[in-house]
Amino acid sequence: MTDIVNLNAFRKKKARAEKEKQAEQNRVKHGRTKAEKEASKAEEERVRRRLDGHRAEDEGNEPA
After folding, report:
1. In the 8-state DSSP scheme, what is residue 59?
2. CA-angle at 49, arms to 47 and 50, nearest 5°
3. pLDDT of residue 53
4. Cα 34 versus chain centre, distance
5. 55 Cα distance to chain centroid
6. What is the distance between the alpha carbons of residues 10 and 47, in angstroms, rounded to a whole number?
7. Which of 8, 32, 35, 56 has the most CB atoms less than 10 A away?
8. pLDDT (tens digit, 9 = 90+) per residue, 21-31?
9. Measuring CA to CA, which residue among 9, 4, 5 is closest to residue 17?
């Protein structure tokens, strides 16, 4: 036989899990020191500049 499942309890459990997941993401995103944020920003800028440097010069003139 199968187990009986209370749907309200299931929904609440799922909602708690989603909130915990969001809280974890927020802790990672906002729980950094100023130095860590600046280092991350510098790394993102370095990667962006590197990618921009590898772009083709005539980006708008693609063959049809």
Report:
1. T
2. 65
3. 85
4. 19
5. 25
6. 44
7. 32
8. 999 999 888 88
9. 9
